[in-house]
Amino acid sequence: MRQRPAMREAQHGSASLRNVALGSRPCTVLIGDGHVKMADLPSERAANTRLGRAVWGNVFVGGLGLGLFVEPMLRNPQVRSLTIAEIDPDVAALVAPYLPVSPRLSLIVGDVLALAAPFQQHGALFDCIHFDIWLGTVVTAHGAWLGDYAQHLREFDQLRRVWSPLLTDDPAAMMTAWIGGRLRALRS
Ligand SMILES: C[S@@+](CC[C@H](N)C(=O)[O-])C[C@H]1O[C@@H](n2cnc3c(N)ncnc32)[C@H](O)[C@@H]1O
Prior knowledge:
It contains five helices and twelve strands. The chain is of the alpha/beta class and about 190 residues long. The strands form three sheets. A six-stranded mixed beta sheet has the order 7-6-5-8-11-12. It has a four-stranded antiparallel beta sheet with strand order 1-2-3-4, covered by helices on one side. The chain has a two-stranded antiparallel sheet with strand order 9-10. Strand 6, helix 3 and strand 7 form a beta-alpha-beta unit. Helix 4 packs parallel to helix 5. The relative contact order is 0.15. The site of S-adenosylmethionine has 23 residues, from strand 4, strand 6 and helix 4.
């Protein structure tokens, strides 16, 4: 798979890509509705690379962001298909041109909460489901949570309930979420 080209600064509706300097290192930041949605930081790359190695089979991811997980997942030969849902059409329009062209990859514009029912009606099943839709939940040096972590956990619980029927009955099938900088594994 060819290396993804550097992202260029661009604006689409309320979303934009900005290239900033992080010390001596260039960093692409995705901004949507006035919030930083994602930054191409080494820590984010490393986490998404680890995630790409951990999944297999038919994979569903909620939240495209900069799509840092896409190449690691598609490079993984155990991944049969990768379906991504992104709620913000402007983010999808900005980032889609940088995604690899692959018959294994589909990008849908929609809300993960609303998408479980139609997927279920079509008999879709996934081996791995991962959610990374939350913004602004970080831990300060003093250990305080910034962002509404409690609300994020409630949403996570709701997602678990509506998406659990879409996991295959393989006992290894997994549902995870990136929340508050921690990867949480869920079982129904
Ligand atoms: C933190 S970013 C995802 C970062 C991503 N893992 C990456 O590699 O760049 C969160 C993304 O989830 C999207 N999002 C937020 N709520 C969503 C929802 N309910 N359904 C689908 N996408 C959602 C946001 O618009 C944003 O693009």
